[in-house]
């Protein structure tokens, strides 16, 4: 069976390549159903749902899903709420280009740290309180936009609002308590993608709210401050909904929680060591900085860019900018899906090529966006760029689970942090100085995407190969078992702590590609019986 | 496959329309007749280091057609605008001065517009209260003369060619209101208190249940 803790990527689903990767449910013989439980969805023995029914609000599983992704999306709305209103704010606060760029960097930097802390908070208070605490305690930061009087204040407030992006962690953690690990990959991927859509929704929402407030008679410089009350109220509403409608576990709330010590808890120091010393971790940190990172940077600059360059009205620029973020609805899952298809034919080498192609294509479309001189070409280039960047995010997390079994949580966290770091860095270099116009900044960002995607060629798995090199023919070192078991030392192996890794290794053999799969064990032998 | 061809063709048509549309817009500022209009702008408060308050202070603006103006028969309307002085354009590319008139963003604030007929050669004199959405910065006043096609043909400004004389400073309104600040604090406090109330309440209920 898959890892009961349900960490991102721990799902065994789709790993053999014989099951449909993005299936919405787990069949009964693989995971037994608890028939005594009275839930709307079939559940396993821990009462986690085995089925992902998208349009249901059934308590508690699907309700948790919707509460979770909507609160994550609300945080994206408030973090990027300033971006489409910058043309008004810059006049009110007398901002320079540097100030605007620095504020953009600040908005994505805070969550690098808050996401690390959030894991601990979820362990202590549970994901429901983790989410509610963060969302409701960051509401004051959103409301404090009404006090901002200069550049320093603006940068500080955007930095503080940015902390709430840590709801990503509570969102994923909460889902893993509610959904069986066989389908957790799809559930978490959908939640992450739909949460990211908030960055697009805000580009539509804020200009419309601003326009309405202006029509009601407020001056421009007051209207934008009032407009921030809307994301602030959303924080309060979502916080209250999470507290009243949500629950920590399928059976109720945490008050009677007992931690079952089934598996010996691993040492943080050891996991950290294996995460940090695996060179692939750092390549993915860089890569995600130039797929998710450029998506966040673009969320910050694109509305102002269309407003200034093509002389559009504020809400027209907002509509165009919104379509960039909204593409997440299908682009991110599509990237994961493309990776899975490449894997059925070419195994891990296919996944690496798919990632390189998608991310490089995104970079080239970004270059085109910077060089587009007419509105129509700019919109077309922007949409293609968004598809490339967001699909690349999905394709990245289709590979990350295979980098390490023992340190998966930390590697996923580091990769996520790399996204925010890449965003801050890109905004600092290209969008905060007078050296580049915004269109030049976009062009150079595209070039940097292409350059920073090249390290994918360096990722080599001895058991599966890399983009240009075949797998190792060494009978010992060229096996999946050797790769995953090498994260455990002899003492740990004697205590049989590496059993999970060996099971994972067995199931991951399908990453060898078509030749391996055709010679694989007969269909009746499901991996979960190992 | 047919649908792909249709999409591609429509994209191509859109691009062609866009590019042809853009080609007609290249009217240049340097082609306009300089100093065809004489413009003066006197702030209601003058002196060393005086900063005018948006929404409160006024400008006394006069414009008249200069005796040296040659394109005067073409004038159909006079548009008076508030323009940024160079100091307010530094590090702010959205206020940049460009020679192509449709790209130029240095004069975004409209003051007033007058229909012109030859009897108005002596010009007009009026008071303008600085609007409440004027940003903080340094400004001068420029008047454009436009023809029947609404294309600029001549201009005059209240400063010299280097934009160094007769520049006045404006301080924008803050946009902040006491009522807004109070509402903001109230909602923030509500958020924190609501959270704590829920938390404490649930902990208490849990203790009661456990003790049962």
Automatic annotation (TrEMBL), chain A:
Residues 486-495 have a biased composition (Basic and acidic residues). Keywords: Membrane, Nitrate assimilation, Transmembrane, Transmembrane helix. The chain crosses the membrane at residues 67-88, 129-149, 155-174, 186-206, 226-250, 271-290, 310-331, 352-370, 376-400, 407-430, 442-461. Pfam families: MFS_1 (PF07690). Gene3D superfamilies: MFS general substrate transporter like domains. GO terms for molecular function: nitrate transmembrane transporter activity. It is a multi-pass membrane protein. InterPro entries: MFS, MFS_trans_sf, NO3_transporter. One of its GO terms (cellular component) is membrane. It is found in: Membrane. Residues 486-530 are annotated as: Disordered. One of its GO terms (biological process) is nitrate assimilation. Belongs to the major facilitator superfamily. Nitrate/nitrite porter (TC 2.A.1.8) family. This is Major facilitator superfamily (MFS) profile domain-containing protein. The lineage of its organism: Eukaryota, Viridiplantae, Streptophyta, Embryophyta, Tracheophyta.
């Amino acid at each position: 069976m898959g890892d009961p803790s349900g960490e991102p990527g721990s799902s065994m689903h789709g790993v053999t390549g014989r099951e449909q990767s993005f299936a919405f449910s787990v069949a009964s013989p693989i995971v037994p159903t608890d028939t005594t439980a009275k839930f709307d969805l079939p559940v396993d023995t821990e009462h986690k749902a085995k089925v992902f029914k998208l349009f249901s609000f059934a308590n508690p599983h699907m309700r948790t899903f919707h509460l979770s992704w909507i609160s994550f999306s609300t945080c994206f709305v408030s973090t990027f709420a300033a971006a489409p209103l910058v043309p008004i704010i810059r006049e009110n606060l007398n901002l320079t280009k540097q100030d605007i760029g620095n504020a953009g960097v600040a908005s994505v930097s805070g969550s690098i740290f808050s996401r690390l802390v959030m894991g601990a908070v979820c362990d202590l208070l549970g994901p429901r309180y983790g989410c509610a605490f963060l969302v409701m305690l960051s509401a004051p930061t959103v409301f404090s936009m009404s006090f901002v009087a200069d550049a320093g204040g603006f940068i500080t407030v955007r930095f503080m609002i940015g902390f709430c992006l840590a709801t990503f962690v509570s969102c994923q953690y909460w889902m893993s308590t509610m959904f069986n690990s066989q389908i957790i990959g799809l559930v978490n991927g959908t939640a992450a993608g739909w949460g990211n859509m908030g960055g697009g929704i805000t580009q539509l929402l804020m200009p419309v709210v601003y326009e309405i407030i202006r029509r009601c008679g407020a001056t421009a410089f007051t209207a934008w401050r009032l407009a921030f009350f809307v994301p602030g109220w959303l924080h309060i509403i979502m916080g209250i909904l999470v507290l009243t409608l949500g629950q920590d576990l399928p059976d109720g709330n945490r008050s009677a929680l007992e931690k079952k010590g089934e598996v010996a808890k691993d040492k943080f120091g050891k996991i950290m060591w294996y995460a940090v010393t695996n060179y692939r971790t750092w390549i993915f940190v860089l890569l995600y900085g130039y797929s998710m990172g450029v998506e966040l940077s673009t969320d910050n600059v694109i509305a102002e860019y269309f407003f200034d360059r093509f002389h559009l009205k504020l809400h027209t620029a907002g509509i165009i900018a919104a379509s960039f973020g909204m593409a997440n609805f299908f682009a991110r899952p599509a990237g994961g899906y493309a990776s899975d298809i490449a894997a059925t034919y070419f195994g891990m080498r296919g996944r690496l090529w798919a990632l390189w192609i998608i991310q490089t294509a995104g970079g080239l479309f970004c270059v085109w966006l910077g060089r587009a001189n007419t509105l129509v070409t700019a919109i077309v280039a922007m949409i293609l760029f968004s598809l490339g960047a967001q699909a690349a995010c999905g394709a990245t997390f289709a590979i990350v689970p295979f980098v390490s079994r023992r340190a998966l949580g930390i590697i996923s966290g580091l990769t996520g942090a790399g996204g925010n770091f890449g965003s801050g860095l890109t905004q600092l270099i290209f969008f905060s100085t007078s050296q580049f116009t915004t269109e030049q900044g976009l062009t150079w960002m595209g070039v940097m995407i292409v350059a920073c995607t090249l390290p994918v060629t360096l990722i080599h798995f001895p058991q599966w190969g890399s983009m240009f090199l075949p797998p190792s023919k060494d009978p010992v070192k060229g096996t999946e078992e050797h790769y995953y078991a090498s994260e455990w030392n002899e003492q740990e192996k004697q205590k049989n702590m590496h059993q999970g890794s060996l099971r994972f290794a067995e199931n991951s053999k399908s990453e060898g590609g078509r030749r391996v799969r055709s010679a694989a064990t007969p269909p009746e032998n499901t991996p979960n019986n190992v | 496959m047919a649908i792909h061809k249709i999409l591609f063709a429509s994209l191509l048509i859109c691009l062609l329309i866009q590019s042809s549309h853009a080609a007609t817009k290249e009217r240049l500022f340097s082609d306009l007749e300089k100093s065809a209009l004489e413009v003066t702008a006197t702030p209601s408060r003058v002196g060393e280091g005086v900063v005018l308050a948006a929404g409160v202070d006024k400008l006394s603006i006069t414009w008249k057609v200069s005796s040296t103006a040659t394109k005067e028969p073409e004038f159909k309307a006079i548009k008076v605008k508030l323009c940024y002085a160079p100091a307010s354009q530094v590090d702010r590319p959205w206020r940049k001065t460009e020679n192509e008139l449709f790209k130029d963003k240095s004069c975004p604030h409209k003051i007033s517009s007058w229909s012109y007929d030859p009897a108005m050669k002596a010009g007009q004199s009026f008071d303008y209260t600085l609007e409440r959405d004027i940003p903080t910065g340094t400004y001068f006043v420029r008047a454009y003369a436009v023809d029947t096609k609404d294309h600029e043909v001549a201009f005059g400004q209240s400063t010299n060619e280097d934009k160094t004389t007769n520049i006045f400073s404006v301080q924008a309104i803050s946009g902040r209101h006491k009522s807004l600040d109070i509402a903001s604090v109230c909602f923030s406090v509500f958020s924190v208190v609501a959270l704590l109330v829920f938390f404490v309440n649930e902990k208490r209920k849990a203790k009661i249940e456990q003790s049962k």
